[in-house]
Structure to design on (864 residues):
C-alpha cells in the first residue's frame, strides 16, 4: 500500500489533503516570434501520445509537427527532457469540392494517437472532410554495398562487376518519415469536429455536425453511421453535434455533446443506429442568467472522459463541468473559467469571440483539469483542494525554470496591483488548445501560433 | 443581462454574420449559423414584445376616438383563419406621409395585427416546445435587414416566421402574419435589399421579397392593398403565406404585399396565382420555365380586398395603377420555391445548407437561385408586361441578393 502511494506522489504533486501546490515553470516555447501571425501557422490542435514522449500539433495550414522528448537521465536532471522537433509533414491540402462549389479547408481539426504496437508510431489527423492515418517511422540504418549501384545511387555498368557482395546495414543519421497509410474520405457531409479511437484499438469514430460514423482502421471504403441527428426537414434543425469521444475502457460506449448543452451517452450494443441515447446529461438552465446569448454560451465545445472512465468533463463558453456518469441531472462539479465575461457577451458576440471553441483536459490522475481563456491566460482547477489558478503563456517569462506568477482578472471595481481589468484583456490572444502529459506534470499550451511547454518545478 | 445593443442592432449584426459566413473559406458553418439564428430569435422576441407594448399604449390613447367599423371591416375581410393583420396593412407611410387621421386607425389596426401576431407567436412557441424549430423561427426573425443592416427593423418582427406547427400545413390557419410594423416610424427607407427574411415556407406567389419597410405598415387601416412593385429600391413587404405544403394545392394562398413606394397593399386571392402561373405556362411548379413576371399577381393585384378601399380614393388610385404591376418577385415566390426544391433535393447536403440560409431569408432566395425574370416571354397580359418591367427594374436588388447568397 505504501509503495503505491509513494509511486503516485512522485509524479503527481497534487497531493490529496494538502501538501505544496505545484509550481509551474516555463520550459520551452515553439514557433515564430513575430506578432504578425501567418494564418497557416495558427495552431489548431495539440495532443500528447500515450507515453507522453511525443507531442503533436496541427495547424491551419494542414501541417503536423511532432515533437519528441529527449530521453534524459531523470535522476540527475534538473528538469524533464526537452521537446524537440521530431517530424514535420503536410497532412492535408486544401481541396475543392466541384460538385458543391465549396472549398475544403486544410486546417487540422484533431489529431489522435494510436497506442504504439511496434517501432512505428501511428496517428489519425483530420480536416473538415477527410481523416488520414499516418505512420511515423524512424530510419537510422541504410543498406550499403549494393552490387549494381554506387553509393551515391548511380548505376554501375554491369560489365564492370567482377565480384559479388552482400549489402549490409550501416548506421545513418536519423530520419523520420511520415507516410499516409489510410485515407478515410467521403463519409462526411458536414464538418468533422471530432475523432476518437476506441479502446479496442481497432475502430474509431468521427463526428460531424449531424452524424457520427464508426470506422475500422483497416477499412477505408466504408464506415457505419451510428448517430444521425439530421432532421427530415432541415428547417427544423435545433441542435448539432459538437464533440464526441469513446469511453476509455468500454469499447461499446461513447458520448457526444450538442450545441444545446446536452451530452448523450450511447451504447453500441443497444442498436445499430444509436439515435436513442442510453443516458442524457443535462443541467437545467438558470433562468436568472437568461440572455440573448444563452443558447450560444451553453453550447458545449469539448467533452473529455477522465482517464478512469468514471467522469467526463465538458467545456462551454464560461465554465467547465465535471459529470459523474452515474448522475444525469446535473454535473458534480462546475468551475467558472471567466465569469467576468458574462456581462460582456454582447461585445463578444459582435467580435465573434463568443463562438470560440475552448478545449479542456485532465491531468494523468484526474485530479486537476485545465482549460484556456483570453489574453493568453489558462486556468487549472484542482478538484481535491478546490483551488484554481490562472497562468499566462507569454514570452516575457521565457527563462527556463522561471516560476509562473499567478494572474488575476479584476471583474469590476477597484483594480488591485497586478490585477488586470476585464477591459484590457486581449481577446485576440486566446488559448483554445491545451494538453497534459499522461503521466507527468508537463503541459502544452497553444497560443495563436506558439506552443508553450510548462513543467512543474523539480527540486 | 444588460446588453449594450438593442434588439434591432442585434438582429442586423446577426444577419451580417450569416451573410458573411457565405464567403468564408470552408463553406457554411452549420453550427455557427444555428447559434446566430438563436440570437435572432431572441432579439426578435424582444423586439416584438416591445412593439406590442408600444402599440398597446397607443391604442389606449386612441381607444375612444375611432369608430369601430373600420376594424370590423378588416376583420371581416380577413381570409378565414388568417389573422386580420395579414390583410390589414395599409400603405406604408414614410415619415411624414399620411395624415394624422389615418394614423390613428392605423395604430389601432396595427395593434390588432400585432396582437394577433403575438397570439400566433405564442401558439407557435407552444408548438415549438413540442417540436422545436427555432431555426425556422429565427429564420423568420432574420428579417431581411439588408446585409449591412441598416437597422430597419420594422420588418423583422413580423417576418419572424410563425411557422405553422410542426408538420402541419396551414390551410385556413393563420400563417405568418404580416410583420406588425411598428407605428409609422420616421425611418428612412431601407436600402434596397430584396432580402426576404421570411419564413421559408412562403410559397405565396404574390409575396414579394420584402425589404424592411422603412416605416412599416402603418397607415390607414383602410388603405387598400397595393400591388407590390419591386421597383429599383425594393420596398416589398411580404404578407402571409401558406405553408409550402399548400403549394401543391394550387398555390392556395392569400398573400398580401405592400409596395413601399406607392404605399399600396395588395392581397391576392387563393388559387388565383397558380392559375395564372400555370396559365402562363411558365410556372415552375408546373415544371416549366421561369414564371412570367408577376402575371398572376397582376390579376390578383386587382382584387383589392380592402374593405376600406372605397374610402381611400388615393389608395385606390394607386392600387389601380399598381394593380397592373405585380411585383416582379411576388408572384414568383412560391413557384420559385418549388423549383428550387426540384433543383436541390434534400438529399444534397449542400442544398440543406443553402435551404437553411434560404429559410432565414425567406423563399425569395429560392427564386434568386433558380430564376431570372424573363422579359421576353410571350405577350403576357398587360399586367404581366408591367410586371416584367418591374421585375427588371428590381433586378438590381435581386442581383444584390443573389450576390449575398
Amino acid at each position: 500500500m505504501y509503495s503505491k502511494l509513494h509511486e503516485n506522489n512522485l509524479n503527481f504533486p497534487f497531493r490529496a489533503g494538502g501538501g505544496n501546490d505545484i509550481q509551474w515553470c516555463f520550459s520551452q516555447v515553439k514557433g515564430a516570434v513575430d506578432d504578425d501571425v501567418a494564418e497557416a501557422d495558427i495552431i489548431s490542435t495539440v495532443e500528447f501520445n500515450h507515453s507522453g514522449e511525443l507531442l503533436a500539433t496541427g495547424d491551419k495550414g494542414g501541417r503536423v509537427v511532432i515533437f519528441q522528448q529527449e530521453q534524459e537521465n531523470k535522476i540527475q536532471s534538473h528538469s524533464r527532457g526537452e521537446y524537440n522537433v521530431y517530424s514535420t509533414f503536410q497532412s492535408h491540402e486544401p481541396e475543392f469540392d466541384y460538385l458543391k462549389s465549396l472549398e475544403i479547408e486544410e486546417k487540422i481539426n484533431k489529431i489522435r494517437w494510436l497506442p504504439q504496437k511496434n517501432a512505428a508510431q501511428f496517428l489519425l489527423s483530420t480536416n473538415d472532410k477527410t481523416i488520414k492515418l499516418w505512420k511515423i517511422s524512424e530510419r537510422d540504418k541504410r543498406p550499403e554495398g549494393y552490387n549494381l549501384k554506387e553509393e551515391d545511387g548511380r548505376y554501375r555498368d554491369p560489365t564492370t562487376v567482377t565480384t559479388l557482395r552482400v549489402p549490409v546495414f550501416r548506421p545513418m543519421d536519423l530520419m523520420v518519415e511520415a507516410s499516409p497509410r489510410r485515407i478515410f474520405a467521403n463519409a462526411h457531409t458536414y464538418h468533422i469536429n471530432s475523432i476518437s479511437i476506441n479502446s479496442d484499438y481497432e475502430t474509431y469514430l468521427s463526428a460531424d455536425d449531424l452524424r457520427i460514423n464508426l470506422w475500422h482502421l483497416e477499412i477505408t471504403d466504408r464506415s457505419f453511421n451510428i448517430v444521425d441527428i439530421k432532421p427530415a426537414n432541415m428547417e427544423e434543425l435545433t441542435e448539432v453535434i459538437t464533440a464526441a469521444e469513446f469511453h476509455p475502457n468500454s469499447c461499446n460506449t461513447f458520448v457526444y455533446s450538442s450545441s444545446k448543452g446536452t451530452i448523450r451517452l450511447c451504447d453500441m450494443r443497444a442498436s445499430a443506429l444509436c439515435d436513442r441515447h442510453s443516458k442524457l446529461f443535462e443541467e437545467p438552465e438558470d433562468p436568472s442568467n437568461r440572455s440573448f446569448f444563452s443558447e450560444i454560451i451553453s453550447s458545449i465545445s469539448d467533452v473529455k472522459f477522465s482517464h478512469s472512465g468514471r467522469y467526463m468533463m465538458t467545456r462551454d463558453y464560461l465554465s467547465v463541468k465535471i459529470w459523474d456518469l452515474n448522475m444525469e441531472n446535473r454535473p458534480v462539479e462546475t468551475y467558472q473559467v471567466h465569469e467576468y465575461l458574462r456581462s460582456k457577451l454582447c461585445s463578444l458576440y459582435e467580435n465573434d469571440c463568443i463562438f470560440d471553441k475552448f478545449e479542456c483536459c485532465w491531468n494523468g490522475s484526474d485530479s486537476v483539469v485545465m482549460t484556456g481563456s483570453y489574453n493568453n491566460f489558462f486556468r487549472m482547477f484542482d478538484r481535491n483542494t478546490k483551488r484554481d489558478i490562472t497562468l499566462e503563456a507569454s514570452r516575457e517569462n521565457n527563462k527556463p525554470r522561471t516560476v509562473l506568477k499567478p494572474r488575476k482578472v479584476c471583474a469590476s471595481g477597484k483594480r488591485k496591483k497586478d490585477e488586470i481589468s476585464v477591459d484590457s484583456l486581449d481577446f485576440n490572444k486566446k488559448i483554445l488548445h491545451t494538453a497534459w502529459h499522461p503521466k507527468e506534470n508537463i503541459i502544452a499550451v497553444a497560443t495563436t501560433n506558439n506552443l508553450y511547454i510548462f513543467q512543474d518545478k523539480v527540486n | 443581462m444588460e446588453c449594450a445593443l438593442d434588439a434591432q442592432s442585434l438582429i442586423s449584426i446577426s444577419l451580417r454574420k450569416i451573410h458573411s459566413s457565405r464567403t468564408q473559406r470552408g463553406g457554411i458553418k452549420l453550427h455557427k449559423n444555428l447559434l446566430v439564428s438563436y440570437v435572432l430569435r431572441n432579439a426578435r422576441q424582444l423586439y416584438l414584445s416591445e412593439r406590442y407594448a408600444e402599440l398597446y399604449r397607443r391604442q389606449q390613447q386612441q381607444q375612444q376616438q375611432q369608430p369601430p367599423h373600420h376594424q370590423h371591416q378588416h376583420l371581416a375581410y380577413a381570409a378565414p383563419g388568417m389573422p386580420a393583420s395579414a390583410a390589414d396593412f395599409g400603405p406604408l407611410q414614410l415619415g411624414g406621409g399620411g395624415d394624422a387621421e389615418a394614423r390613428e386607425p392605423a395604430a389601432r389596426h396595427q395593434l390588432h395585427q400585432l396582437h394577433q401576431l403575438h397570439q400566433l407567436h405564442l401558439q407557435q412557441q407552444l408548438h415549438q416546445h413540442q417540436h422545436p424549430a427555432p431555426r425556422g423561427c429565427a429564420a423568420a426573425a432574420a428579417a431581411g435587414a439588408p446585409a449591412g443592416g441598416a437597422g430597419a427593423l420594422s420588418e423583422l418582427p413580423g417576418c419572424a416566421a410563425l411557422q405553422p406547427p410542426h408538420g402541419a400545413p396551414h390551410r385556413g390557419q393563420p400563417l405568418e402574419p404580416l410583420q406588425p410594423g411598428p407605428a409609422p416610424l420616421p425611418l428612412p427607407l431601407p436600402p434596397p435589399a430584396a432580402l426576404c427574411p421570411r419564413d421559408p415556407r412562403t410559397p405565396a406567389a404574390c409575396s414579394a421579397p420584402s425589404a424592411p419597410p422603412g416605416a412599416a405598415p402603418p397607415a390607414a387601416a383602410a388603405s387598400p392593398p397595393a400591388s407590390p412593385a419591386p421597383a429599383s429600391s425594393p420596398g416589398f413587404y411580404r404578407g402571409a403565406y401558406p405553408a409550402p405544403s399548400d403549394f401543391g394545392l394550387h398555390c392556395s394562398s392569400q398573400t398580401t404585399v405592400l409596395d413601399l413606394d406607392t404605399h399600396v397593399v395588395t392581397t391576392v386571392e387563393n388559387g388565383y396565382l397558380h392559375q395564372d402561373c400555370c396559365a402562363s405556362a411558365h410556372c415552375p411548379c408546373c415544371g416549366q420555365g421561369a414564371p412570367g413576371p408577376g402575371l398572376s399577381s397582376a390579376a390578383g393585384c386587382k382584387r383589392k380586398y380592402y374593405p376600406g378601399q372605397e374610402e381611400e380614393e388615393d389608395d385606390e388610385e394607386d392600387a389601380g395603377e399598381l394593380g397592373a404591376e405585380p411585383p416582379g418577385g411576388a408572384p414568383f415566390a412560391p413557384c420559385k420555391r418549388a423549383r428550387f426544391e426540384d433543383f436541390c433535393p434534400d438529399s444534397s447536403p449542400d442544398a440543406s445548407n443553402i435551404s437553411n440560409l434560404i429559410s432565414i431569408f425567406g423563399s425569395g432566395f429560392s427564386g434568386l437561385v433558380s430564376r431570372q425574370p424573363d422579359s421576353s416571354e410571350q405577350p403576357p397580359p398587360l399586367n404581366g408586361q408591367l410586371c416584367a418591367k418591374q421585375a427588371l427594374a428590381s433586378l438590381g436588388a435581386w442581383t444584390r441578393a443573389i450576390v449575398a447568397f
Summary: The radius of gyration of chain A is 24 Å. The mean pLDDT of chain A is 91. Chain A touches chain B through 43 residues (CB under 8 Å). Helices of chain A lie at 2-11, 294-298, 345-350.
